[in-house]
Amino acid sequence: MTELSPYQKFASNMLDKDSVYIPKILRNMINDQQAELLVSLPGTAAELSGKTGRSETDINADLKDMFRKGLSFKKEKQGQPTYWRPPMHLAQFHDATIVWPEATQEFYDLWEAYMEKEWPKLAPQLANFLPRPFTRVIPVGKSLDAGKAKILTYENMIDIINDADKIAVTKCTCRLTMHKCDAPIEVCIQINRGADYTIERGTGREITKEEAHNIIRESAEAGLVHVTMNKTGIGHFICNCCGCCCQSFTLLISDGVSLCDPSRYRPEVDVDTCTACGACEERCFFNAIAIGDAESAVVNLDKCMGCGQCAIGCPEDAIAMVEIREPAFIPD
Known about the structure:
single chain; 332 residues; alpha+beta; Arc Repressor Mutant, subunit A; Alpha-Beta Plaits; 2 domains; seven-stranded mixed sheet; two-stranded antiparallel ribbon; 15% strand
């Protein structure tokens, strides 16, 4: 039996052992020695020196290079960093590596090919494997009917940003590689530890809370959907996603693959105010609201993600987002 190369071993760790593109992506980033080091993780520089027979100085240099490129992650304990590779799913590998500052066009093209040709086969398996999606939608703040429901802190963009200790912004990894639309790119907000990681790597820039609020507002106006970690409390990021490039939304729309949870809200249409103009239908890339032959907009609850884009785009203010799920819907 032929022994797997370190590039193939890494692909196997990503649960995609037969991938053609993951080894090519890695070869575009690192050399053979670094690839061997990558599959030897986790460990400290001293431990990895023992495993590989290389000097700690060389090991440290490679670990720092791979950290910058998004291939190694570290946690310091008593001043001694332990490094590990991305966990067994594509999201962290994808998101961390693509914002590597010196990434080439060839590297982006390889990621685009992977997302178009191989990701659609792996994604349904991951969706079935996970008990709940890793991310969830947060509705556009001004779409919510605050008079009928208590808006929780972790569902309110203003509160999430105001409660953060540090904020940074990076480019959207999906639009960097897929480039299927002209939506804003520098809109992926990193919070607290996520911001620290971004700033240390040099993959984004620190921003003020005012700048973050402006990014959220501009993203909402551009039709982008807010997405964060699927848990209560402040997560590490707020993505602003489109329906044509997003690694989660594209497969959710085309094949119904559950890679992101909806919000706790859904649109409620005031049929007396609605003029059936179709503005909401144009803004919804989930195909969850339509006019058809009706005299007012009709919501398809099976497809609706509760993002609020239909509500903020309604010229007649005929749509409001109302609570339909209990707070316990969001995992602790």
